[in-house]
Amino acid sequence: MTGGYITQQIVNGLILGSMYALVAIGFTMIYGIIRLINFAHGDVVMIGAFVTLGLLQILGWPFWLVSLCVLAAGAFVGLCIERTAFRPMRGAPQVTGFITSLAVSIMIQNLGIVFVSAQPRNFTFPGFLQQLLRVGPVSFRAVDLVIMATALVLMAALILLVRKTRLGVGMRATAENLDVARLMGININRTIMATFAVGGALAAVAGLMWGGKFGQIDPLLGFVPGLKSFVAAVIGGVGSIPGAICGGYILGLAEVLFVGLLPPIYSAFRDAFVFGTLILILLVLPNGLLGKRMEDRA
Amino acid sequence: MRIQRKTLLVVVLILAGLGGVAVAQRSLNDYVLSLVNFVGIYIILAVSLNITNGFTGLFSLGHPAFMAIGGYTTAILTFPVQRKAYFLAGLPEWLARTEVPFLPSLLVGGVMASLAALIVGVPVLRLRGHYLAVATLGVLIIVQVLITNLESVTRGPLGLNGLPALTDLWWVFPWVVVTLFVSWKIKFSSFGRTMLSVREDDLAAECCGVNLFRTRLAALVIGAFFAGVAGGLWAHLVTAITPKSFSLVLAFTIVVMVVVGGAGSITGSVVAAVVFSVLTEFFRPMEERLNIYGLGEIFMALVMIFILIYRPMGIFGPREPRLLKPDDA
Fold first, then answer.
1. Which residue in A94, A98, A282 is closest to B127 by CB distance?
2. In a domain, A4, yes or no
3. What is the reported pLDDT for A277?
4. How far is B28 from chain A (nearest CA, A)?
5. Which of A253, A266, B44, B220 would you label with A246, given CA atoms 20 to 30 Å apart?
6. Structural domains of chain B sorted by starting position, each given as residue range(s) with its CATH number in brackets
């Protein structure tokens, strides 16, 4: 086990972490604003991957245009989910929203199976993204670099949005206290829709990356990464955006190192490891690394 | 006197059920018979999850995990010794040489599931609301991963197949009756009232001297026992068991039954279990003819969302029909 091997694993972990972080941001923003664990969020990842496949491979659009379209598609799906499933249920008990999100998730997955069939499809990025780059002992493809850079740019843009714009102020106020925010003249419906749109857009981009990284997509692909991103959000403290980013990278690194450094027999247990971590964190550190204290968790 | 009349009604219903079983076993074809068996198993699952989820308000997605534990335990115990030798060569010596009749196997399966619920419940039940749901979902995935990887005992992803087809209505019907009976007794006892009080307002319940943790744990463990039994019945009905059988979709299906029927209502769980398992079966030929799979799931999710929007307490709410209620309740 040389230093080069470990560096390589760390790079892989960072790539995986970028994707988890992008999805976890959506989980955390939605939870922060309406206290809902949105399980359908992972399926937006799947939709993003299939939109990429359709535009890039079948219609042959240029890569930058496809990326923009994927962002837009994700935002649109997020909006639709909020409008049709969650808005009629606002104010209902937490668990009701949770069951609804499971229902939406199962519906999206099965609609995926109906329309694009359960057959996994191959997914290739254009040639210039497939180039193999070498830095010292570490080798990666150009697409990995693009993934990490895009993730960082999007995260920076998001933090600017939340910190500096009127919309961001509205989001933070709504997350703080929905009723008071409404009294202050913030349009709650628009703010919540914007949150779902931003979360959906980031998740869809994660889907584009997922396809590019692993080369195969199917309608059920979003579910497990979605759950793991939720774990990432919990690690960072649900409700905190910097927390979600940290949680994503921590989980990505931990998962890759768990598989890479332990003997191969254990690598089949990686999902058990991730969800064991989840239960442990919920019990020991219920507010996560950067989350605010909330009473109703444990 | 009216109490006696109700007891009489129950006895008559059970006898009529047994008569129905006798007729059904003789006259129905295999397909319909297995469908009826599945309906029975779903009733056990929904009614037992209703104890955990409906009475006590613990939103658990771990039911299939307990089913899997019960199912695998039962399957390994009933597996014929001669076939174990080459089929499950990695088994420990004492397990490889035992072959147990169906009833004790089912009971052991249920007890193992309860034990697992006890071990899992002690840490996890400190969580509330949807955090509990997420943690139990984690438990489900961990159990799946463990079953997939403990190849010497479970044959991993291949699963166990060629199990003896022991399950028939003579097994399923009595277990449905037992589940209903236990659930009924719990609901209309002081213990059941304790559970309901924990669901309604845990702080107030605690102030009245209810031991929250013990009540929650009991609800999870009792639910898990019947899930384990149902898993055993399931395995010997399908005559095969794989880790994939106990998925999140199954957890969702059972939760849908409980919520649509009305969380806390035993009658509601039974009705919803019957309706949904028959409807899913109704969708299957259509899916095969059109070559479009997943219609049943989409339908179920839609029904779920509509019920939650327009009738959030479910069809029956927490109530039972008056005809069946004990008079003092």
1. A282
2. no
3. 84
4. 33
5. A266
6. 2-324 (1.10.3470)
Please compute the mean of the pLDDT values over residues B193-216 and round it to a whole number.
87
Distances (CA, A) of B320 to B11, B53, B267: 19, 16, 6
Q: Which residue has the tokens 């937006």?
A: A44
Cβ pair A298:B146 closer than 8 A:
no
Of A100, A275, A283, the CB nearest to B308: A100
Cα dihedral value B149, B154, B156, B159, nearest 10: -150
**Cβ of A100: how many Cβ atoms within 10 Å?**
25
Residue A95 and residue B149: Cβ atoms within 8 Å?
A: no
Query: Containing domain of residue A55, as a range?
Result: 14-222
Q: How far is B145 from chain A (nearest CA, A)?
A: 6
User: Which amino acid type is present at position A16?
Assistant: L
- H helices of chain B, in order, are 2-27, 30-49, 63-78, 81-87, 93-96, 102-124, 129-149, 151-154, 169-187, 190-200, 202-207, 212-238, 248-261, 266-290, 295-310
The answer to whether residue A46 is domain-embedded is yes
Structure tokens at A14: 């960072």
Domain presence at residue A235: no
pTM attached to this predicted model = 0.85
Tokens read off for A161? 């949005």
The tokens describing B132, both together, are 């509990």
Contacts 24+ apart (CB under 8 A), B114-118: B114/B66, B114/B221, B114/B222, B114/B224, B114/B225, B114/B228, B116/B65, B116/B66, B116/B69, B116/B143, B116/B224, B117/B62, B117/B66, B117/B220, B117/B221, B117/B223, B117/B224, B117/B225, B118/B217, B118/B221
In angstroms, what separates the C-alpha of B293 from chain A's closest C-alpha? 6
In a domain, A282, yes or no: no
Counted across chains A and B, CB pairs separated by less than 8 A come out at: 118
Q: How far is A190 from chain B (nearest CA, A)?
A: 21
The beta-carbon neighbor of B138 closest among A111, A278, A286 is A278
Place of tokens 């106020």: A173
The nearest alpha carbon in chain A to B157 belongs to: A268
Kindly report, residue by residue over A10-55, the tens digit of the pLDDT. Answer: 888 888 899 999 999 988 888 888 888 888 898 999 999 989 888 8
Distance CA B200, CA B190 (A): 15
Collapsed DSSP state (helix, strand, coil) of residue B104: helix
- Select from A211, A216, A234 the least CA-distant residue to A285: A234
| Torsion sign, CA atoms B42, B44, B49, B50 | positive
Beta bridge partners of A138: A135
Percent of chain A with pLDDT over 90: 14
Residue A53 three-state SS = helix
The string of pLDDT tens digits covering residues A112-157 is 888 887 788 887 777 677 777 777 777 777 888 888 888 899 889 8
- Mutant choice from B59, B130, B255, B303 vs A, greatest count of A C-beta within 10 A: B130
**Structural domain tally of chain A?**
1
Q: What is the mean pLDDT of residues B108-136?
A: 88
The answer to whether B281 touches A61, Cβ cutoff 8 Å, is no
